[in-house]
Design brief:
Largest sheet: 7 strands, mixed
Structural class: alpha/beta
Distance between the termini: 36 Å
Order of helices and strands: HHHEHEHHEEEEHEEEHEE
Strand order of the largest sheet: 3-2-1-6-7-11-10
Strand content: 25-35%
Helix content: 25-40%
């Protein structure tokens, strides 16, 4: 972390959503299949099972919106987006308004562009509101929402915006307070990662293993239904980010948990 900057200051000063997407998610990125395609396949399999459905879904973290919500918008009536950074919220707003120039990482195949436009519109219609949470000193804090959700979808979020494991657990507790008892949680988490680069800016990451994440959820009253640990695919570019694997997880909140 840059000398003298808090995590909040670092993100406010240096984070740029478009740069992150260009580096890690676009078709010409070496990281794309590693952090984008595999997580998409896992999410699609969960939503297509028919076990995850309801009225309200919360997308927690706004860097990836349309591509993440394509398999979800058929199963939920209303979608809310929660994020903590002005640059992410601005990008979501631009995309919702169809403003030109917004990078959309699912525009990967030109031949599929017509189909993508149709699906993109379904996602836009499903999104009912966007909320800004607070990036506190050690972790993100969820905003107040009009109702608890039937499902939360969180992608590569909490570990990037918490300063340590204690902060991560507080962030997890805050996020899952937005979920109804019996509701579903679907997550992707980078494992054993200490940093990632965006241009010349270096952002810290809380280093986690899959057992820590699962234990933290169990302590919050969740029943772990399905997990997948996917090892890092590329052996190069460790100077850009040093993660070793990704965790994809599906859990259900206990019905006696508020």
């Amino acid at each position: 972390m840059a000398s003298g900057l808090t995590l909040k200051n670092l993100y406010e000063k240096y984070f740029d959503a478009e740069s992150t997407i260009s580096t890690y998610f676009m078709p010409n990125s070496e990281f794309r299949h590693d952090v984008f395609t595999e997580r998409g396949n896992f999410f699609a399999s969960i939503f297509s099972s028919g076990d995850v459905k309801g009225d309200i879904l919360i997308k927690y973290g706004g860097t990836l919106v349309a591509s993440s919500l394509l398999p979800a918008c058929e199963s939920f009536k209303d979608i809310f987006i929660v994020d903590f950074l002005d640059s992410n919220l601005k990008r979501v707003d631009q995309w919702l308004k169809k403003e030109p120039g917004t990078i959309v990482p699912s525009e990967l195949e030109k031949k599929d562009r017509e189909m993508w436009i149709e699906k993109e519109e379904k996602v836009r219609k499903a999104i009912k509101d966007v909320f800004k949470g607070e990036l506190a000193e050690s972790h993100p804090v969820a905003p107040a929402l009009p109702a608890q959700a039937d499902c939360i979808l969180s992608e590569f979020c909490l570990e990037f915006m918490s300063t340590d494991k204690k902060g991560y657990c507080k962030a997890l507790k805050s996020m899952t307070s937005l979920l109804k008892p019996g509701g579903c949680l679907i997550m992707s988490v980078v494992l054993e990662c200490t940093f990632y680069m965006q241009g010349n800016a270096k952002f810290p990451v809380v280093s986690l293993d899959d057992e820590f994440v699962k234990k933290a959820l169990i302590e919050e009253g969740f029943d772990i239904k399905e997990t997948q640990v996917a090892p890092r695919l590329i052996n190069s570019l460790h100077s850009i980010s040093d993660f070793s694997a990704k965790l994809f997880l599906f859990a259900r909140k206990g019905k006696d948990k508020e």
